[in-house]
């Protein structure tokens, strides 16, 4: 079974607990939830720092020629390129989401007054979606160089 499917009940219990906490103690609940979010973020950053500072994994019991070949081809640049690709996709997708949100709501407001501008409004929304495509292209280039 996938690890994420096993984590779904934990997330549901945590969300239910947060809702009940907010319903019962409104003012102090947000302080508790903010402190819990800061603690989880600190743990995630510590885990990220540990993962980035770790060396390559070495398998025991390998044939010496295979172990030497694996050691020669393993560099840290590939992992950095993958992280950079992930940042490029995430950043461009978040930027595209904000752009589509603002242009889409403005387009709907304009179309409610003048329905004949549908085509021009959708072009603007499509251009905003292009931001995510640019990030994906940069990620493909980075992965190709890794």
UniProtKB/TrEMBL annotation:
Its main location: membrane. It is a multi-pass membrane protein. It comes from the Bacteria. InterPro entries: ATPase_proteolipid_c-like_dom (IPR002379), ATPase_proteolipid_csu (IPR000245), F/V-ATP_Csub_sf (IPR035921). The chain crosses the membrane at residues 6-22, 34-59, 79-109, 121-143. Coiled coil: none annotated. It is found in: Membrane. Keywords: Ion transport, Membrane, Transmembrane, Transmembrane helix, Transport. Residues 83-142 form the V-ATPase proteolipid subunit C-like domain. Signal peptide: none annotated. Gene3D superfamilies: lithium bound rotor ring of v- atpase. Belongs to the V-ATPase proteolipid subunit family. This is V-ATPase proteolipid subunit C-like domain-containing protein. It comes from Arthrobacter humicola.
């Amino acid at each position: 079974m996938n690890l994420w499917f096993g984590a779904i009940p934990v997330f549901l219990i945590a969300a239910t607990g947060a809702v009940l906490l907010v319903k019962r103690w409104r003012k102090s609940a947000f302080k508790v939830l903010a402190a819990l979010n800061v603690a989880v973020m600190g743990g995630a950053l510590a885990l990220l720092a540990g993962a980035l500072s770790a060396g390559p994994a070495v398998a025991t019991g390998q044939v010496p020629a295979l172990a030497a070949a694996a050691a020669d081809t393993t560099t840290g640049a590939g992992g950095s390129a993958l992280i950079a690709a992930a940042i490029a996709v995430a950043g461009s997708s978040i930027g595209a989401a904000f752009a589509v949100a603002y242009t889409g709501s403005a387009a709907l407001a304009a179309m409610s007054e003048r329905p004949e501008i549908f085509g021009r409004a959708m072009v603007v929304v499509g251009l905003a979606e292009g931001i995510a495509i640019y990030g994906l292209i940069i990620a493909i280039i980075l992965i190709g160089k890794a």
